[in-house]
Every structure is written in structure tokens, then in C-alpha cells.
User: Which sequence fits this backbone?
């Protein structure tokens, strides 16, 4: 019998995996009496176990799902729910940054512009993509493409999935902060609809650097915050060991952020996370995006930009003494 | 009522550690012994080597604005604690401490004032208030200040000093980057000048939003200005950074600030710039 050991198994995925293995074993032996009954019993048990595990995930467990190496990335969404995608490269100043991809595409019959952070799947592609951590060139490429979209009145869709903007020497020398600031400024006033989807990790300025829009959607198991749980832990507790507490304190899940009105909509994932059933994930994403886009296209652009700005003006919780 | 009407005793505390308590101080850069009075007369810079001491909001108000022209607005705005954030101490306790030690209610002080007779909307960040970090209250005060400058058609001048976004407000503080940048689009559309003065240190979410969006970007000599903090970069690249890295002069060389202006000449430069916009 061939064992199909998955490459990456999260701690809380193990009990489910073990039951699934048991079914496989029984199928391969094939001589047990009442085998169908027994398999059905186990399958029910798996379903119950999944329901139980995934209905009470801790925030840190969701962070782990958001970082799962088999989770769909920006290009997976582009290739599966868009057509006629042509990737456009380069910031016209320094170079092309592979940590942010962008290009023109068709979605639901509309010409759109799509931009997103891009991680790699293995060591080689991760080095190429810099683990999805952009340099200023990535943000400036996005800036250039946003202007292209505006010039030709095409809606923009962005996918957020980054552990942060790259904290390197060259990134600083070439103005990481300025590049992000310019994007915030441009996206706030861009005269085309913008849909933002946080699909995995939304870490800090590196994420929001392509994350200002009319509708902010977030996958059920994605996280979005000002700092990663690890960095937060190291600042507050002087150690990386308190990442679980930090994740709790930061309230970084989609559910949390919907309650805080930071995001507009939670996009459900297949049971167990997007990596468990990417096909279903693409179907859900396509449905949600098409509904959102059709709604935005009905709004006059002057109203849309005004509403977008007001949406961000209303962000925050303060008090008056 | 503005803070400036309060008695001087209550507002002594907006002093960063570098500032001397006694009669004299030793320059941290060149070791020169400087009398406090001499330091004050020299705009809190070392007469020998030009080292710029970190100074507080009150000093900047005195240096930049005409005497007794500053009128503070929205001083009553302070942070809530929407996430019930708790680390070594509760966030609200941290705020309370900062309020007591600085005499301010938040890390950004905003109002109207005059620079050589020219009326401006002005903001001053207080680094002593939780590292000058930007949470919802700072974002809201920036927004209201920009709105004031828009409604009154007055130039906006902001003195930045910040460690970045305020961690204790998590995603809410991240949103302030978008909020402050968004209101600046309205100033731009109305052709209202916005001048930033980046002081030591200006990093993180403040640099990556309103800090870097000025029509004119001024930096103080030697000021640390960047996105990532130097320690984070050193951990990432696993080597030591050169001493001038992310300093004002370095940013000037790399093309990310317009001018580096010694504190002594700050007001005069500002007034020249404002007059250029006026005409
Ligand atoms: Zn000196």
C-alpha cells in the first residue's frame, strides 16, 4: 500500500489525518466483515471531528492555516478565476519585484487590473519571491499599474498575502516608507472601483500598501494586523514563545476585524481551510468577487471615491475627555 | 483651553531622557560640557559639534511658531482601548502614565499658530507619549487638523517624531495610515501646501503615511528616518549597519528628503517656503 503522507501537517490536523489513514488501510485490506458500515462510521466520525476542531480554532491556529505552504496564493486565484491574464512587470525605475505580481485580466466579462503579493512554494521560488516580502519596487510597480487602471477606467482587484514589507538595507535606501505612503495616497483617491482581498497574511504597512479600497474582504482563516504575533511577542515579552498570547491580544482574525468594522466581509473557506480544497475555494472566491464587483460598478465614481475616503475617515476608536 | 495657558510646572515632563535635569550637560556626541542655558539659547544643539538634542513639543512650538500664537484644538481626544489590550500592564494604564508624565492626552498636539505672521495649521508629535506611536486618537487628531487646514485654507505643517503605528491598537492603528493619507488627498486637490518636518526618530507607519507625503519634506540633521527600525534590519541582514544609515543626510543623498535644515534655521526656512506658496 502506498502511504500518501502529506508534506505539511498542522498539529490540529493530525487526528483527522489519522482517521483518514485508518479508512485507507481498511480499504486496502478489504477482507473485514461489514467494511462499508465501518468506513461510514469512520467518515461520520471524521466529519464530526472536523466540525469540532474547525469551529473552535484559536487565533494562533488560524495564523498557521493562513501560512500553510499549500494554501492558494495570488497567482493561483488569478489562474483559476480570471482569464486572459497578462502579467506586467517592472516599476520603470529600478527593476521588477517578484514579491508583488500584477497585470491585466478578464473577470466575468470585465477588463480588470489585478495586483497581489506573491509567495513561493519551495526554497527556490521563495528566494525568487523573497517570501512575499516586497521591496519599494513592488509597491511602485503596483502604483504604476493602478494609474494604468485609472487611465482606462478598469476596476482594480488586489490580493494581500505578505509577512511584511522587506526590512532590508536596499529597501530602506530606495524608500520603502515613501513607496508605501504613495500607494495609500493614490489608492484613497483612485477613480476606479477597488476590491481588496486578504487571502493569507496581512502584515502591517507591507499589506496595506496595496490594501486601500472600496470593499475589504478577508478569508475566514487569514490574519491582518499591524505586527506579526511573533514580533509582537518579542517586543512585549522579550521572547518569541508567547506568539499564541500575542495572536489573541492582537485580535487579528477575520471575525475580529469584521466586528471592529475594519473589513466588510468574511469570505468562507472550505472546511479545514483553503488548502484542503482549492477548487472549492476558487469557486467561492469567484462568486463573492463577481457579486462585489457588480455592486461597485453600479455606483457613480464620484460617490464611490467619496464613500471610500469616508470609510477610512471613520476608522478608529477614540474618546473625548 | 490650550495647554499653554497651564502653569509651567505641569508641563515640564515632555522631556526626552537626553535632556539635562541639572545645570549642565555633556554632549552625547562630542563630550563637550554645555550649560543648560547655553544649550537653550542654541536651540538645544551642541555649540561645538552641532548635535541636535531630542526635544519635546513645547520646544518645537517655541522654535517654530511666533510667541503666544499657538491655539490648541482637540486636546481632549485620547485613545480608547477597543481591544482590551494587556501586556506587562494594561494599555489604559500605559496611556494614563503617558498622560501624567507628558502633560498631553495624546502623542499628537494640534492647533493653529503663526510662522513669522503667516497663519498655519500645525501638528507636533510627542515622542515621550508611548514612543510617539500612532493609534486611533493620533489618526483622528491628524484628520481633524488636516480638515481644519482645508476649511480655513491654511498651510499644514507637521513635526513628526514617532516609532510607528501603536501596537496596542493592532489593525486599528494600521487603518490610521490609510486615514491620514486619505485626508491628504483632499488637501492636494485644494492646492493647500503640506510641509513635514521629520525629527529624530521618525519610523514605521508614520513615515510610511503622512510623514512621507509632504509637498516639501524637511529633516533635522542626524535624525533617524526610515520604515523598518535599525535593529530589525540588522537582525534580517545579520550584519551591522553603517553609522550614517537612515540618518537625515543619508536620506538627502538617496533623494528622499528635500532639505536638511539645522534647528536654528528651521523657522526662517519654513517662513521662506510658506511665502513661496502664498504668492
Ligand atoms: Zn557636541
Assistant:
Amino acid at each position: 500500500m502506498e502511504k500518501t503522507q502529506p508534506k505539511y501537517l498542522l498539529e490540529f490536523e493530525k487526528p483527522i489525518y489519522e482517521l483518514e489513514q485508518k479508512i485507507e488501510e481498511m480499504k486496502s485490506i478489504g477482507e473485514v466483515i461489514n467494511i462499508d458500515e465501518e468506513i461510514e462510521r469512520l467518515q461520520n466520525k471524521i466529519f464530526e471531528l472536523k466540525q469540532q476542531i474547525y469551529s473552535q480554532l484559536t487565533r494562533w491556529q488560524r495564523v498557521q492555516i493562513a501560512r500553510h505552504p499549500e494554501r492558494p496564493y495570488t497567482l493561483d486565484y488569478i489562474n483559476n478565476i480570471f482569464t486572459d491574464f497578462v502579467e506586467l512587470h517592472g516599476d520603470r525605475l529600478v527593476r521588477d519585484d517578484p514579491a508583488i505580481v500584477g497585470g491585466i485580466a478578464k473577470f466575468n466579462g470585465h477588463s480588470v487590473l489585478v495586483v497581489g503579493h506573491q509567495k513561493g512554494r519551495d526554497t527556490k521560488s521563495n528566494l525568487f519571491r523573497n517570501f512575499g516580502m516586497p521591496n519599494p519596487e513592488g509597491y511602485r510597480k503596483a502604483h504604476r499599474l493602478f494609474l494604468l487602471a485609472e487611465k482606462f477606467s478598469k476596476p482594480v482587484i488586489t490580493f494581500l498575502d505578505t509577512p511584511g514589507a522587506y526590512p532590508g538595507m536596499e529597501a530602506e535606501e530606495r524608500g520603502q516608507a515613501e513607496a508605501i505612503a504613495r500607494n495609500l495616497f493614490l489608492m484613497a483617491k483612485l477613480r476606479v472601483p477597488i476590491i481588496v482581498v486578504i487571502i493569507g497574511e496581512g502584515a502591517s504597512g507591507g499589506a496595506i500598501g496595496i490594501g486601500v479600497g472600496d470593499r475589504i474582504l478577508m478569508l475566514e482563516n487569514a490574519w491582518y494586523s499591524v505586527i506579526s504575533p511573533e514580533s509582537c511577542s518579542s517586543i512585549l515579552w522579550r521572547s518569541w514563545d508567547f506568539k499564541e498570547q500575542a495572536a489573541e491580544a492582537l485580535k487579528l482574525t477575520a471575525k475580529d476585524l469584521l466586528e471592529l468594522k475594519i473589513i466588510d466581509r468574511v469570505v468562507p473557506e472550505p472546511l479545514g481551510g483553503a488548502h484542503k480544497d482549492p477548487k472549492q475555494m476558487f469557486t467561492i472566491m469567484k462568486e463573492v468577487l463577481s457579486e462585489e464587483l457588480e455592486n461597485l460598478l453600479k455606483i457613480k465614481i464620484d460617490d464611490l471615491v467619496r464613500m471610500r475616503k469616508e470609510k477610512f475617515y471613520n476608522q478608529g476608536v477614540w474618546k473625548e475627555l | 483651553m490650550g495647554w499653554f495657558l497651564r502653569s509651567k510646572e505641569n508641563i515640564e515632563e515632555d522631556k526626552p531622557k537626553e535632556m539635562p535635569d541639572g545645570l549642565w550637560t555633556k554632549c552625547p556626541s562630542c563630550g563637550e560640557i554645555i550649560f543648560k542655558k547655553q544649550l537653550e539659547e542654541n536651540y538645544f544643539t551642541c555649540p561645538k559639534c552641532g548635535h541636535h538634542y531630542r526635544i519635546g513639543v513645547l520646544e518645537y512650538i517655541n522654535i517654530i511658531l511666533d510667541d503666544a500664537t499657538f491655539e490648541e484644538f482637540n486636546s481632549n481626544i485620547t485613545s480608547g482601548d477597543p481591544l482590551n489590550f494587556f501586556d506587562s500592564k494594561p494599555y489604559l494604564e500605559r496611556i494614563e502614565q503617558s498622560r501624567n508624565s507628558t502633560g498631553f492626552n495624546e502623542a499628537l498636539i494640534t492647533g493653529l499658530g503663526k510662522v513669522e505672521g503667516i497663519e498655519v495649521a500645525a501638528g507636533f508629535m510627542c515622542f515621550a507619549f508611548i514612543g510617539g506611536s500612532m493609534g486611533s486618537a493620533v489618526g483622528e487628531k491628524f484628520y481633524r487638523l488636516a480638515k481644519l487646514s482645508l476649511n480655513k485654507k491654511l498651510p499644514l505643517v507637521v513635526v513628526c517624531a514617532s516609532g510607528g503605528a501603536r501596537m496596542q491598537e493592532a489593525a486599528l492603528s494600521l487603518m490610521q495610515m490609510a486615514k491620514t493619507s486619505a485626508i491628504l488627498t483632499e488637501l492636494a486637490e485644494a492646492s493647500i501646501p503640506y510641509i513635514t518636518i521629520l525629527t529624530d526618530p521618525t519610523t514605521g507607519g508614520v513615515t510610511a503615511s503622512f510623514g512621507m507625503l509632504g509637498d516639501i519634506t524637511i529633516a533635522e540633521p542626524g535624525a533617524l528616518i526610515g520604515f523598518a527600525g535599525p535593529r530589525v534590519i540588522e537582525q534580517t541582514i545579520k550584519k551591522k549597519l553603517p553609522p550614517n544609515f537612515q540618518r537625515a543626510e543619508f536620506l538627502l543623498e538617496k533623494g528622499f528628503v528635500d532639505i536638511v535644515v539645522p534647528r536654528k534655521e528651521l523657522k526662517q526656512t519654513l517662513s521662506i517656503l510658506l511665502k513661496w506658496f502664498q504668492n
